[in-house]
Amino acid sequence: MKAVLCKEFGPPESLVLEEVDEPVAGAQQVVVDVKACAVNFPDVLIIQNLYQFKPPLPFSPGAEIAGVVSAVGPGVDAVSIGDRVFASTGWGGLAEKLAVGADSLVPIPDGIEFGPASSFLYAYGTSHYALKDRARLQPGESLVVLGAAGGVGLAAVELGALMGAKVIAAASSDDKLELCREYGAAETINYATEDLKTRVRELTGGAGADVVYDPVGGSYSEPALRATAWEGRFLVIGFAAGDIPAIPLNLTLLKGCEIVGVFWGSFVMRDPEHHRRNVEELVGWWRDGKLRPHVSSTYPLDRAAEAIRELADRKAKGKVVVTVGDAG
Ligand SMILES: NC(=O)c1ccc[n+]([C@@H]2O[C@H](COP(=O)([O-])OP(=O)(O)OC[C@H]3O[C@@H](n4cnc5c(N)ncnc54)[C@H](OP(=O)(O)O)[C@@H]3O)[C@@H](O)[C@H]2O)c1
């Protein structure tokens, strides 16, 4: 089979497409014929050895897939050959086939194509866990989302609005912010041209934001924390801007606020039952038409590096998907 391989750490352009042995389904595993693999910012990091998960070389990046089960290993009874499924896999998705633990598979709802299915779990799973379980977001609260048109950001905008929050989307361009409005943002801040702290305070009547969702880091975190409300919750999601900010702790004292770490991948491993309930809720909303995964561009497998490059260059909106074989 064909697989995109990271054989040495480097930029997306150092990935190669090669023939490799097909995987075999071990105990409690299935083999999935991959039809689509969504890319995420962690793909930018993992191929440079900058991510918290460090698979041994060579490996295929690609953390979430959708496809069709083509083989079933010993001890698997809830999944059958031919089932349409999606899963979060950490890496390995940019290949024609992948062996996956059967318990990590989610059936694709009827009528949903492979592309959107591959792009669902990571973004919505992270943002749902962050807003519901970590921030305890309440209806009527104000929610500021940084990097709001990115993969996890746009999911946070859509979920925040669905949960009844007043969503303030912050991003670096007006066309990104336009997309955020389509996904439920009540207000927007272009932080390339406007002062983030001042605008958040203005848009919250001086009170500050009840919840801040920060997947960007860098120079954006501190002004956003300074615009957090009394007893607000500041969610640390990631550092797409590159730098991990050092925060003056006195700000948390003065605001009586919480800085809350969010590590969805670890949560999934530590509390699989809670994760399963969260996915059920998300898939229910999706089936009811309340969630609309936004895939802004797709690439074939032999151009997977360009998909990851879009994220590295800050160009992606919503999700970028690599299609594999004949999938759409
Ligand atoms: N904690 C968790 O469990 C968890 C789970 C999933 C992802 N994450 C993290 O969340 C972050 C976002 O992931 P994603 O897949 O949503 O990425 P993405 O789609 O590429 O979105 C990242 C956003 O960050 C902003 N950004 C600011 N400076 C940037 C730069 N120098 N390069 C690239 N983007 C920059 C961009 O928005 P603007 O141009 O509008 O600023 C971009 O839309 C990553 O750090 C990722 O590791 C964390």
The run of helices and strands is EEEHEEEEHHEHEHEHEHEHEHHEHE
Name the ligand types.
NADP nicotinamide-adenine-dinucleotide phosphate
SS strand fraction: 25-35%
Note the quaternary state here.
Answer: single chain
Category by helix and strand content: alpha/beta
What's a quick, concise take on this entry?
By secondary structure, the chain is of the alpha/beta class. It has 11 helices and 15 strands. 30% of the residues lie in helices and 26% in strands.
Structural description of this entry:
This protein is an alpha/beta fold and 328 residues long. The chain contains 11 helices and 15 strands. It has helices at 41-46, 114-118, 121-134, 151-162, 174-182, 196-203, 221-226, 250-255, 264-270, 272-287, 304-312; strands at 2-5, 16-19, 29-39, 64-72, 84-88, 97-101, 106-107, 142-145, 166-171, 187-190, 209-214, 228-236, 258-261, 295-300, 319-323. Strands 3, 4, 5, 6, 7, 14 and 15 form a 7-stranded mixed sheet that branches. It has a 6-stranded parallel sheet with strand order 10-9-8-11-12-13, with helices on both faces. It is globular and about 60 Å long. Bound molecules: NADP nicotinamide-adenine-dinucleotide phosphate (NAP).
Topology, element by element:
Layout: E1 2-5, E2 16-19, E3 29-39, H1 41-46, E4 64-72, E5 84-88, E6 97-101, E7 106-107, H2 114-118, H3 121-134, E8 142-145, H4 151-162, E9 166-171, H5 174-182, E10 187-190, H6 196-203, E11 209-214, H7 221-226, E12 228-236, H8 250-255, E13 258-261, H9 264-270, H10 272-287, E14 295-300, H11 304-312, E15 319-323
Helix pairs in contact: 3-4, 3-10, 9-10
Bound molecules: NADP nicotinamide-adenine-dinucleotide phosphate.
